[in-house]
Structure formats: structure tokens, C-alpha cells
Amino acid sequence: MTDSLARKGKIGVLVEAHFDETEYRRFNQFFPEHGYAVEYLSHLWNQPSLSFKGNDFSEDVTVSTEVNDANLADYAAIILIGGYAMDWLRYEESPKPGEPNRAPAVEFLRGAVVAMDAGNLPIGAICHSLWLFCAAPETLAGRRVTCAHNIKCDVEAAGGIYVFNEAGDAGADVHVDGGLITGRHPGVVEPFMATFLRELDARPRAAGRSAA
Predict the structure, then answer these.
(1) Which residues, in sequence order, are CB contacts of 146 under 8 Å at separation 6+?
(2) CB 149 within 8 A of CB 85
């Protein structure tokens, strides 16, 4: 990453295996073109880095930033990539009866939502990525969102409010609810990114969130 590409700061993108390649390629192009570096984060299972393949094995990403060690103050925004990556990231090694999910990425999301609700950190989620929110239902309850319609039931079970398009036959392409920007699927990645960028640039960057 160069200073010129990161002049506005970093966008942290949570990722794991079976991520969506369309989103991956466009994030890597679009956000640097508009002044934001893109940094991928994941749970690395005590490894210095891990490589993950996308849904159709046409792209791979090597991640060296452990989500357990990530400092939210280092990021201008967070995005949850689509595909099945967030289902992998909500995996909890040792679940306990009656206790909430404590997977590292889920705990990271809880902190990010607190920062989002304080007006400091926009969060983007597209397609299936609301699955990570569903692992911590308190982060989703009462929020109006769009997503892939085949996880509509998961989102509603977690307390989210699914927003339909004007025809009422599918989810809205993009929806903004406070600091949460959601997109329906990779086919709307362009309006999703444009909306996300608009919302991000409209928010004053918090002190300490500087470019890396």
C-alpha cells in the first residue's frame, strides 16, 4: 500500500475461504482509486498468514492481519465480504450452552458495531455476509437491511428487518441504516461501493484514524 492510495485511511475487509471474487476484484480497484487502502483481516489460527480461495477458485488472498489483534481505530471503515466467508468466520471452536458466540470475528464485529453506532465507523455488508451479524443477533436486531434473499430467514430470525425493492418481489439493491450499508448481491457491487463511499466520505474521520 502506498501513501497516495491510503491518503484517506484504510478500509478493513473481513475475509475467509469461499469469498466472492467479483467483490474482491472491485474492492481492490475502486477504493484505492478513491483514496482508501484495502486491508484484509481474518482469524489466522496462530499462523503468521493464511491464504484463502474464492468461491470459484479464480482468486486467492493471503492475509497476515489477525482479527484478534486488529485495532478499530486504525480503520476508516469495515466491510464484510460476500460469498460464504462469513459463515467460516462465525465458526466457534468451543461453543458453550447458553453463551453467545465468541468467535474472534464475531467479537470484532461487536466492537465495530459499537463504533458504528457512535458515528465513527461505517460498516458494509453484502450478499451472504450478514451471516456474521446473525451470529451476534444483538448487533442486527431492529436494523433495516438488504441481502441475498436466501438468507432473509436468517436475518429476520436474528431480529433484522428485510427491506424489499419497490416491486416487493426481491430485496432492495442497496440500503443505508445509520452507519450500516448493505447490498443485495455481487450484481449490485457498483451501487453498493458508490453508496458506501458516499456515506464514508460524508463522515468526519475520527482522531487517530490516519492513513497507514
Answers:
(1) 162, 163, 171, 172, 173, 174, 175, 182, 183, 184
(2) no
- The answer to whether the beta carbons of residues 23 and 98 sit under 8 Å apart is no
Grid cell of 70 as nine digits: 486488529
pLDDT-above-90 percentage for the chain: 90
Cell readout for 169 is: 418481489
**pLDDT for 206 beyond 70:** no
Query: Nearest CA to 137 among 115, 154, 112, 123?
Result: 154
Go through the domains of the chain in sequence order and give each one's CATH number: 9-92+99-202 (3.40.50.880)
Residues facing residue 36 across a β-bridge: 9
Residues for the chain: how many in total?
212
**Percent of residues, the chain, with pLDDT higher than 70:** 93
Beta bridge partners of 161: 144
**Which of 65, 62, 54 has its CA nearest to residue 21?**
54
> How far is residue 123 CA from its own chain's centroid?
6
Per-residue model confidence (pLDDT) at position 208: 39
Spatial separation of the C-alpha atoms in residues 129 and 182, rounded to whole Å: 9
pTM to 2 decimal places: 0.93
Angle value at C-alpha 6, between 71 and 110, nearest 5 degrees: 25
- How do strand 36-42 and strand 65-66 relate by DSSP bridges? parallel
Q: What is the predicted pLDDT for the residue at 5?
A: 54
Cβ(117)–Cβ(179) below 8 Å = yes
